[in-house]
Amino acid sequence: MKKTLGTLAGVAAIALSAHASAETTLTIATVNNGDMIRMQKLTDDFTSKNPDIKLNWVTLEENVLRQKVTTDIATKGGQFDVLTIGTYEVPIWAKKGWLVPLDKLEADATYDAGDIMPAIRTAVSYDKKLYAAPFYGESSMIMYRTDLFKKAGLTMPEKPTWDFIRDAAAKITDKAHETYGICLRGKAGWGENIALITTVANAFGARWFNEEWKPEFDGPEWKNALSFYVDMMKNSGPPGASANGFNENLALFNAGKCGMWIDATVAASFVTNPKDSKVAADVGFAHAPCEVTCKGANWLWAWNLAIPAGSQKTEAAEKFIGWATSKDYLALVASKEGWANVPPGTRTSLYENADYLTAAPFALPTLDAINSADPVDSTAKPKPYVGVQFAAIPEFQGIGTTVGQQFSAALAGSSTVDQALEQAQQSTLREMTKAGYIK
Fold first, then answer.
1. In 10 A of CB 97, how many CB atoms?
2. pTM
3. Quick one: which of 60, 102, 103, 106 has its CA closest to 79?
4. pLDDT over 70 for what percent of the chain?
5. Helix axes 327-337 and 34-41, enclosed angle (nearest 10)
6. Which of 10, 56, 61, 430 shows its CA 20 to 30 Å from the CA of 260?
7. Coil, strand or helix: which one is 417?
């Protein structure tokens, strides 16, 4: 009897050990944006279907996420199994061999990779292979307070100019009641203030580099654009704007403190949700402002899920990515939060869904913005790089971060526009020469 019990105990221990060894824990690095936070709350749906997979979340502010993920993958640190990365990183990292191609998802008829919007699919592919799956896609547009416009006797044009935006911002600013006419990104970062300011510069006729890869911050277009941005923000923007990125401006707008906000189209579901926004009933949408041109006036971006090369958990990681970026996930969010709150901008079928179009007044403006953004032809003068709000070269992450700090300092008043542009020219010229672009 003792022998039998001992044998049974041994069998149980072996079975338990086998179960423990079969269990996989995925460490997922993601950004602290609203749609990703929502995804974490819904992952019981995934783990209930995949009980052998556990999820460990590392949720970070945008600039910090980029830094940690880039360092980890470049040094082959192996800290993460699933990465949240942007359209900038995907083709560059795929070319370096840093990402695993998502062959199973691409071949899975149920997943239907062919349903991914063409502009977004191209952005997350390299050599005609899918290297990341888009969680949400976006462009940029104007979100504005219709009640404040009506009170000021203003009508938003279908395609306003930056001059109109500046004048309207001044009219609806009421600093005594903490209502600011315009909220724009000022926080330093190539994916924070540089994303916004580059679209302003594009509209003013500027470009990052000429056809010989020489930076153009010493030209009149950049001087006009940055001066315009800084002056408008000082006159009609909130205090401390140089510290405000996407999330900070979203909070300000939802609190009723911004008359206009020009930023990512993905924000639309949050500013129109009464649970999040005090001004949900009074929000209108319009095309991002043009000036001397409309080329590059609105950006193109997607946050995507990818697997770092060398991962020992590729199969489990691809299962999770398939779940989080599927049509079924959109339906899951719709069942819990309503169709207006599903991650936008990735699937063509979403914009053919009558329930979504009815629930989301921003759906068609978002689609128009995404379809009108052209990463190849996004500046008035010809350019040697691909990208609307960034240049798709490996060096841009470092260059953009440095320039973002210089521009943020000009907004904060710790340097002048002229000083910021001179420093941007010098630092960028130095880096591009060192990297071999300029002989």
1. 9
2. 0.91
3. 60
4. 95
5. 90
6. 61
7. helix
d(CA 229, CA 166): 9
Buried b (16+ CB within 10 A) or exposed e, 297-329: bbbbbbbbbbbbbebebbebbbbbbbbbbbbeb
Handedness of CA 347, 353, 355, 358 (dihedral sign): positive
The single-letter code of the amino acid at 179 is: T
| Contact (CB, 8 A) for 372 and 265 | no
Structure tokens at 85: 């990365």
Q: What is the per-residue pLDDT across 268-303, written as a single tens digit (0 to 9) for each? A: 999 999 999 999 999 999 999 999 999 999 999 999
Do 158 and 267 fall within a single domain?
yes
Rounded to the nearest integer, the mean pLDDT of the chain is: 94
Is residue 166 one of the residues assigned to a domain?
yes
Alpha-carbon span 111 to 423, nearest angstrom: 48
**CA-closest candidate to residue 363, choices 338, 346, 340:** 340
Q: What is the CA radius of gyration of the chain?
A: 23
Residue 223 has pLDDT above 60, yes or no: yes
Residue 348 is part of a domain; what is its CATH number?
Answer: 3.40.190.10
Whether 304 and 294 map to the same domain: the answer is: no
In a domain, 430, yes or no: yes
Residue 386 burial (10 A CB sphere; 0-12, 13-18, 19+): middle
Q: 292 with 406, same domain?
A: yes
Would you report the helix, strand and coil content of the chain in percent, each value rounded to 5?
50, 15, 35
Task: Please determine, for residue 312, whether its predicted confidence score (pLDDT) is greater than 50.
Answer: yes
User: Residue holding tokens 């395609």?
Assistant: 159
